[in-house]
What we know:
Blueprint: H1 2-6, E1 12-23, E2 33-49, E3 54-59, E4 67-70, H2 84-95, E5 103-109, H3 119-135, H4 141-156, H5 163-170, E6 175-180, E7 186-190, E8 198-204, H6 214-230, H7 243-247, H8 252-278, H9 284-296, H10 303-314, E9 319-323, E10 330-336, H11 340-354, E11 360-364, E12 371-372
Parallel strand pairs: 3-5
Antiparallel strand pairs: 1-2, 1-12, 2-5, 2-6, 3-4, 6-7, 8-10, 8-11, 9-10
Amino acid sequence: xxxxxxxxxxxxxxxxxxxxxxxxxxxxxxxxxxxxxxxxxxxxxxxxxxxxxxxxxxxxxxxxxxxxxxxxxxxxxxxxxxxxxxxxxxxxxxxxxxxxxxxxxxxxxxxxxxxxxxxxxxxxxxxxxxxxxxxxxxxxxxxxxxxxxxxxxxxxxxxxxxxxxxxxxxxxxxxxxxxxxxxxxxxxxxxxxxxxxxxxxxxxxxxxxxxxxxxxxxxxxxxxxxxxxxxxxxxxxxxxxxxxxxxxxxxxxxxxxxxxxxxxxxxxxxxxxxxxxxxxxxxxxxxxxxxxxxxxxxxxxxxxxxxxxxxxxxxxxxxxxxxxxxxxxxxxxxxxxxxxxxxxxxxxxxxxxxxxxxxxxxxxxxxxxxxxxx
Length: 374
């Protein structure tokens, strides 16, 4: 595809996966704990460096066609649409003193857009890895995580943490990534679903969400207000045992936002412990408790997500929750492999009866992180 558009072969092709967050939602920007894993849906970029300061970009989806920009004129205010993700990465690298020459880029992605599976972070991670290789910048993967996060925050305008880029760049096949978002310490946690005869089903509700909208920013602002009132650097520093005292200091809405973050951090730590001690079949109640907290305390669910979770649980799922930033996107269900067909059908039927759009349902397994493929 690259050669068809640009008339020559690329310097290489890189790919980076989307992710499912097993548990740990909105805890990353509170310097807490998360447990995502990469999935088989990936963003692929073919890139060839140029001798000038021009970037030409095109993707296999949409009808925008070839976009041509002058890299010397890049600024957060003039990057828009899907090109803001790769151009944002180039801009961040330049801001860090790395010489980024012009380039031609072709993007092809199988990560569903707006589904809460980190399609944006997949693009950022693939481009960051490619430009890191081609320019000889020699940044570590942990440093590339911060490049992608800065592009998301300052260019796209989404006040996200480091969860998504960490999952895309640091995952390994058959494992979830246990990440301490304060120290940035990473552990690979074995997650062998096949051995346990389990499947994680993703249910893309087809309700698109966007992290750059006001709802996501409002949740972050509530967390920051809660931390300020409680006199702590971040909500990472509040324990479950301190919630009763916090209730007397905070208004009801802020307290519920705080309670979600505090209990979610505790659930992540419990999930890691349970996986080690009893295996993945035992983590279902923690996943479901996480969804209830996001629905009732953080208020980031929606009727489609709730229906997907409730239907999966009613038909034999061991646990289920929405995944991602919320306000739409996807839910996941941990199910016995033998129940997969029945649960798929039950969710499809429930959505049809409710008059919702037909969901896209597919199994996800822990996949490898970003890398060069040619």
